[in-house]
Automatic annotation (TrEMBL):
<feature type="domain" description="RNA ligase Pab1020 C-terminal">
    <location>
        <begin position="254"/>
        <end position="378"/>
    </location>
</feature>
<protein>
    <submittedName>
        <fullName>Putative ATP-dependent DNA ligase</fullName>
        <ecNumber>6.5.1.1</ecNumber>
    </submittedName>
</protein>
<dbReference type="Pfam" id="PF09414">
    <property type="entry name" value="RNA_ligase"/>
</dbReference>
<dbReference type="InterPro" id="IPR021122">
    <property type="entry name" value="RNA_ligase_dom_REL/Rnl2"/>
</dbReference>
<dbReference type="InterPro" id="IPR041596">
    <property type="entry name" value="Lig_Pab1020_C"/>
</dbReference>
<dbReference type="Pfam" id="PF18330">
    <property type="entry name" value="Lig_C"/>
</dbReference>
<feature type="domain" description="RNA ligase">
    <location>
        <begin position="88"/>
        <end position="243"/>
    </location>
</feature>
<dbReference type="GO" id="GO:0003910">
    <property type="term" value="F:DNA ligase (ATP) activity"/>
</dbReference>
<keyword id="KW-0436">Ligase</keyword>
<dbReference type="InterPro" id="IPR001072">
    <property type="entry name" value="RNA_ligase_Pab1020"/>
</dbReference>
Length: 380
């Protein structure tokens, strides 16, 4: 049994989590709830009513709740009817970046990744992109958004006309409770403080939403974009997400480039999305064949490329970059990746105006090792 640090107030955490002291002790002993290098607590697994990625800041016992998992619509028309009881739904763009929660803790803006870790790079960006006044005027809020752009160390994308890395707000939630503000309240606050939001396509009557969303998805897919999030405007009911075929295939292409690291977790759900979407859209045989070709190429072509590269003694890595104001931030980010168990090579920084561009190779060791093993005669 692990010794529980003396500075942790079991009673207070039990109160915040709406659970018993015994359960909190069990979470701490099993390290499901554990201390970070910053001295805060992260919850690694959801428990009743508390999402994974929840972070407890021990100085003032403030809680930034983990972002709830959004359910996915597979057959869109049926899912809309079964899921929503509201008369209309708000349809926003689902962007392809990385989930970020930004809060004001101990008089500082900090940014948390989906898992609840304070990311030094994202924090530096958030402190530049988000005005402090929003938190001094509204101290009890958490900004939930997507960090997207080419200088993302997690999901680099060039499809959003972003120069480096931008924050796109999609929800505002309360500290400690995680309760969301309405869609209208979010946009009002964002406009007041000049914060960029994910695109709102419109608020549509539920009876018209299927046709509207289908057209939106086809247009987004043609531009290589991900999909939509469908919301109750009052945020009383949880949202749904729905993605384009092109996004599914792009995800698979990435996963099968590093097949022994990611492919298993990516594969099944995305194939299922393609099948259900094809049926719901009542595709012709020609359209189905086109979908099959796109899907097959997304799976097989990157895997063949990977094998050939390793056969030629080239190491497979994910190449990303960060743009930082301070080299100290880059050093902190290197340590952040180490804590997450990511093997990465940081290259010499390049000075650009008053910032530093740092290129990073994230080594996918399992894919490299597995491929080398098979190429030398070992079996699967």
């Amino acid at each position: 049994m692990n010794e529980i640090p003396a500075d942790i107030d079991i009673d207070k955490i039990a109160e915040l989590f709406h659970t018993t002291k015994q359960r909190v002790r069990g979470l701490l002993n099993r390290r499901t709830l554990h201390k970070t290098p910053d001295g805060n607590l992260i919850l690694d697994k959801s428990i009743s009513g508390v999402e994974s990625g929840t972070n407890v800041f021990l100085k003032n016992y403030e809680v930034v709740c983990g972002f709830p998992k959004i359910q996915r619509a597979m057959m869109l028309q049926s899912a809309l009817a079964a899921h929503f009881s509201c008369k209309s739904v708000a349809v926003e763009e689902k962007m392809n970046g990385y989930n970020t929660r930004v809060a004001y803790i101990d008089n500082k803006i900090i940014a948390l990744t989906r898992g609840g870790h304070t990311c030094p790079y994202t924090t530096e960006k958030a402190q530049t992109l988000i005005p402090k006044e929003i938190f001094t005027d509204h101290p009890g809020i958490v900004l939930c958004g997507e960090m997207a752009g080419p200088d993302s160390p997690y999901v680099p994308k060039n499809i959003y006309n972003v120069k480096s890395l931008e924050f796109f707000l999609f929800d505002i939630r309360e500290k400690n409770t995680g309760m969301p503000l309405s869609v209208a309240a979010k946009y009002n606050i964002a406009e007041q403080y000049n914060i960029t939001c994910t695109k709102l396509f419109g608020v549509y009557p539920l009876t018209e939403a299927y046709n509207k969303i289908t057209r939106i998805i086809k247009n987004l897919g043609a531009c290589g974009r991900e999909g939509v999030v469908i919301k109750d405007p009052a945020m009383k009911q949880p949202p749904l997400k729905y993605t384009s075929s092109q996004s599914n295939c792009s995800d698979l292409q990435h996963a099968f480039t590093y097949y022994h690291d990611y492919a298993k977790s990516f594969f099944y759900s995305r194939i299922a999305r393609e099948a259900f979407q094809s049926v719901e859209w009542n595709e012709t045989p020609e359209e189905i064949q086109s979908r099959c070709i796109q899907l097959g190429e997304g799976i097989l072509q990157p895997m063949i490329t990977t094998i050939k590269k390793i056969q030629e003694e080239e190491k497979i890595s994910e190449n990303v970059q960060i743009l930082v104001k301070s080299l100290n931030t880059a050093e902190k980010f290197k340590e952040h990746l180490r804590i997450l168990g990511i093997d990465a090579i940081f290259h010499r920084p390049e000075k650009i105006n008053n910032e530093y561009l740092v290129k990073i190779q994230k080594i996918n060791q399992r894919t490299n090792d597995k491929t080398e093993s098979i190429l030398t005669g070992n079996t699967w």
